[in-house]
Write a structure and sequence with these properties.
The protein is an alpha+beta fold. The protein has one domain (6-132). Helices cover 19% and strands 35% of the residues. It has 3 helices and 11 strands; from the N terminus they run ββββββαβααββββ.
Length: 139
């Protein structure tokens, strides 16, 4: 069972474990993760995966659309935030600087694929990976 050593209202993180708006995940080993969606389903053991290709595709599409110089936020759902934590893109230092609103968690200073982001976790049960400007406006 995961132990969360750093907690907020809507998140908890610890050594190899994370929870965002009820979605949870735990790194069992380098080859195995245990994940649960935000509805608290039975935990499922999965092979580790990366969000990098999904993020790169969204960034490339938005850049080609002429929005590349405006976005500073990477918006993700709770399950995607868990994956970003388990794969090491978001870490405890980032979470110490996180701020929360009723349906968001903003995590500043996250460097992904050479670019600095504020990762905004949205309380949404659907798969989300998109970009937004500093005001949260999406292209």
């Amino acid at each position: 069972m995961a132990t969360y050593t750093l907690r907020g209202v809507n998140f908890g993180v610890g050594d190899g474990a994370a929870a965002f708006f009820g979605a949870r995940g735990e790194r069992l080993s380098d080859e195995r993760w245990l994940v649960t969606d935000m509805f608290g389903q039975t935990p499922t053991e999965v092979a580790p995966k990366s969000m990098l290709s999904d993020i790169q595709a969204v960034v490339q599409s938005d850049t080609e659309g002429g929005f590349g110089d405006r976005f500073t936020q990477l918006r993700v759902g709770p399950a995607e935030a868990v994956i970003l934590y388990l794969e090491g893109q978001i870490n405890r230092t980032h979470m110490e600087k996180a701020t929360e609103g009723p349906k968001i968690i903003d995590i500043p200073g996250v460097k992904i694929d050479g670019r600095q982001w504020t990762v905004r976790v949205l309380a949404s049960p659907t798969y989300i990976v998109d970009t937004a400007d500093a005001d949260g406006v999406t292209p």
